[in-house]
Specification:
This protein has two helices and 61 strands. The strands form 14 sheets. Strands 46, 49, 50, 52, 57, 58, 59 and 61 form an eight-stranded antiparallel beta sheet that branches. Strands 51-60-53-54-55-56 form a six-stranded antiparallel beta sheet, with no helix packed on it. The protein is globular.
Length: 766
């Protein structure tokens, strides 16, 4: 396969979006030490610390403190503080909480609260998320179930934040599965299934690398195929052939290797045919070891543990990933685990199967050494190995301390915790921390531990070679008409390491349309003499890519222009020139390129002589569409749109708009007008009779009071008739969403009947 004319950075899905809020960073703090991410300093769930407790009695020996907070993730420890992500409250008032407490006493030092929005998350199911601490700056990174990905100082001051839903099209699922950020050098990396814009319009399991200090995007990567489910496996960092890489499971059922510096996928090993790979991998003597519990790729059996040889890469002149086959296997066995990740201690693997069996495996050959039944089942909770002992939480809330050997295991202690365990323990300074769906627990010894292990030494970085390409940061920008921004243009060598930064005056910029682009569009903007991208003054949305050239090297960035309020779109200017692949003789146009989550879900068609936005029916995976047409910081506005559905009196689809993170929908089958944000917590409706194949006008606004409470108002009427004076529905919300991108919504159950949207307007209130 010949190399594409685009470097890997662009082939990965072209880039991604800007920062919603940036704050002044404080003075550089001391380097952070501790259990900084949920897999620990060894990246495999183990600690080198000694002198850890062998017994624990609730409200007795070694039980130091507990804090009431629900969580389904894992705590981390840094510089004498514990950080964890949980949730509190019920119904519409439920909020996620990023909590910081004193590691010795459990005293609350600070917290940040977030309301869920526009998600399908059911908190009584999974909702897995956890923070990560940067060892260099001490900053804390976490993403909520609603996709708010933020950076905070050790004292809780906000540094930057992205709304992954509204900026990158992150999709939501009932199981949550948020995961935890990965930090390496200057980058913080987050993942999720996203449906963005342009080349990233297809729903895929993607990774986004941000500058950890500024929040600017460096690269995005799509290493796998179409996902079967959303994976939240924590990637594992390593070196391969001089490249800094990470290994991880994917939502398409594969194991992948990705270059950390560029996002280039190097290889992929298909493992599961029935679901994603959710357990984190471990590394052992040139092997990547993974486990999953769904149907195997080459048999109807469920679950497998496998060891894969590392080192494969694309040949010179070819793009990755290289797809590996069975010849890459070193060994396999029949163990199955959904997302409980194995730990590696020397040559021994310890994993808890989905049936609650603790198993010891020889990492050299995959041989099962012994098995020990702990409980009825296991879901997400992962064991931890330290000081010759295993600390094992189970889904049912049981917590074991065990001493393993080559022939079996001895039970040292067992306690029954309040709630369920779905995360993993953390160990630091003689203490073990574990979070359940009810409490954060700490047990161990007070004060400083003499058995505290020395910090893991930083690995030296190789000296860069000659530059072979350019890396542009930020990789994507969002501007208003007349706005401007600057870029950092860096040379990178063949392994992706930075060779230097170029003088902006030497960089030549030109508009660029990728040869595979379905929409051959350009962003309305030009570069000035200072190397700044200046958006045009025309108040129309636009999007496109730019090519930078220095000394014969090339690099790419892309951007969108999104006007401030008011916004309007009637689709009349669209050229219906694309031949439909599924319907002979039908011509359509793609939706506006700058809209997030529009591609593959909507298309512009002619209906009764008018050009309107129509919900696609090609793929049942896209039967539900949330599409964003503005920016996440927009607020205090009214959204109106015409809505129509195909169908009949018995079966209809649903359509509506998004206003400040609330969805306002005309539901066909239930014949009502609904306001929702997360169906589990905010879902209120009133009867509204409407007929198929008739247009209705929908209008909604959100009013927020100074105390943070708000009211969502909506009304609907048959198009052409007089607007009613009264609102059909008014929904109070004690902790209202104060901002959010406007958008449109469509739901075609089983992709049977289309929804149509026309004459969209977004105007400031008042």
């Amino acid at each position: 396969m010949k190399r594409s004319p685009l470097p890997a950075i662009l082939c990965l899905g072209l880039l991604a979006s800007g920062v919603t809020a940036t704050y002044s960073a404080p003075a550089k703090p001391a380097r952070a030490t501790g259990w900084l991410n949920w897999r620990g300093p060894q990246q495999n769930g183990t600690s080198l610390e000694t002198g850890l407790p062998e017994t624990w009695t609730l409200n007795g020996a070694n039980h130091l403190w507990e804090v009431p907070l629900s969580s389904r993730g894992a705590p981390v420890v840094a510089n004498g503080r514990v950080y964890t992500l949980g949730y509190e409250g019920q119904g519409a008032d439920l909020q996620e909480v990023l909590l910081c407490v004193d590691a010795e006493t459990g005293k609350k030092l600070w917290e940040k609260r977030f309301s869920d929005f526009l998600s399908d998350v059911i908190y009584d199911r999974y909702s897995i998320g956890g923070p990560t601490v940067d060892p260099e700056t001490g900053n804390v990174y976490a993403m909520t179930s609603a996709g708010l990905f933020g950076c905070y100082t050790a004292d809780g001051a906000p540094v930057w934040q992205h709304s992954m839903f509204e900026q990158y099209g992150r999709l939501s699922f009932p199981n949550g599965r948020t995961g935890a950020p990965l930090i390496d050098d200057e980058y913080v990396i987050m993942r999720g299934i996203t449906s963005n814009w342009g080349a990233q319009g297809a729903a895929s399991d993607r990774f986004y690398a941000f500058d950890k200090r500024t929040g600017q995007l460096a690269w995005s990567s799509t290493p796998g195929g179409q996902p079967r489910e959303n994976s939240f496996a924590m990637p594992t960092l390593a070196w391969q052939n001089g490249k800094r890489v990470f290994y991880t499971g994917l939502g398409d059922g594969s194991i992948a290797c990705v270059n950390v510096r560029t996002g280039e996928p190097l290889w992929r090993f298909p493992l599961s045919a029935g679901g994603g790979v959710n357990a984190s991998v471990v590394l052992h003597k040139g092997k990547v070891i993974a486990v999953q519990d769904a149907e195997n790729i080459d048999s109807s059996e469920l679950g497998r543990m496998v060891a894969i040889k590392v080192g494969s890469e694309p040949k010179a002149g070819e793009t990755g990933p290289v797809v590996l086959d069975k010849t890459a296997e070193v060994w396999r066995n029949g163990l199955a685990s959904f997302s409980s990740s194995p730990v590696l201690a020397g040559d021994r693997l310890y994993v808890v199967s989905k049936t609650g069996v603790l198993t010891s495996v020889d990492a050299n050959n995959g041989k099962v050494l012994w098995e020990h039944k702990l409980g009825p089942d296991q879901l997400h909770a992962s064991p931890l190995y330290a000081d010759g002992k295993l600390y094992v939480p189970l889904t049912n809330g049981s917590f074991f301390i065990l001493r393993p050997s080559d022939t079996g295991v001895k039970e040292l202690a067992k306690v029954q915790l309040a709630g369920n365990c779905l995360g993993a323990p953390a160990v630091w300074n003689g203490k073990v921390y574990v979070h359940t769906t009810e409490k954060l627990y700490c047990f161990g010894k007070k004060g400083k531990s003499p058995g505290l292990a020395a910090p893991v030494a930083e690995e030296p970085r190789p000296k860069p070679g000659r530059p072979v390409a350019l890396q542009i940061i930020p990789a994507e920008v969002v501007l208003q008409p007349g706005g401007k921004t600057s870029f950092t243009v860096r040379g990178i060598d063949a392994n992706g390491f930075v060779t230097g930064t170029y003088d902006k005056a030497k960089v030549k910029w030109a508009k660029y349309i990728p040869p595979t682009a379905a929409v051959r569009a350009e962003m309305n903007g030009e570069f000035n003499a200072q190397g700044e991208l200046v958006a045009g003054s025309v108040k129309q949305p636009s999007a496109g890519a730019f090519e930078a050239t220095v000394d014969g090297l090339k690099g790419y960035t892309r951007g969108r222009v999104l006007p401030a309020l008011p916004l309007s779109e009637n689709f009349d200017a669209m050229d219906l020139s694309v031949s439909h692949m599924m319907e002979t003789g039908v011509k359509f146009a793609y939706p506006p390129l700058p809209w997030i989550g529009a591609r593959f879900r909507w298309e512009i068609r002619e209906v009764d002589g008018n050009k309107v936005l129509a919900k696609t029916l090609d793929n049942v995976l896209f039967q539900r569409a949330q599409t964003f047409i503005g920016q996440p910081d927009m607020k205090n506005y009214t959204v109106e749109a015409d809505v129509m559905t195909d169908g009949n009196r018995r079966i209809m689809s649903s359509g509506g708009v998004i206003n400040q993170r609330y969805v306002i929908t005309l539901n066909g089958n239930s014949q009502d007008l609904e306001v929702s944000s997360n169906h589990e917590r905010i879902k209120v409706s009133v009867p509204f009779t409407w007929a198929p194949k008739e247009w209705y006008r929908l209008k909604t606004r959100v009013d927020v009071a100074p105390d943070g409470s708000g009211v969502v108002r909506a009304k609907a009427w048959k198009r052409g008739e007089t607007e009613p004076a009264a609102w059909n529905i008014e929904v109070p919300h004690k902790q209202a969403h104060t901002s959010g991108s406007p958008g449109i919504f469509g739901f075609s159950p089983q992709s049977k009947f289309r929804v149509y949207i026309d004459n969209v307007t977004v105007t400031p209130n008042g």
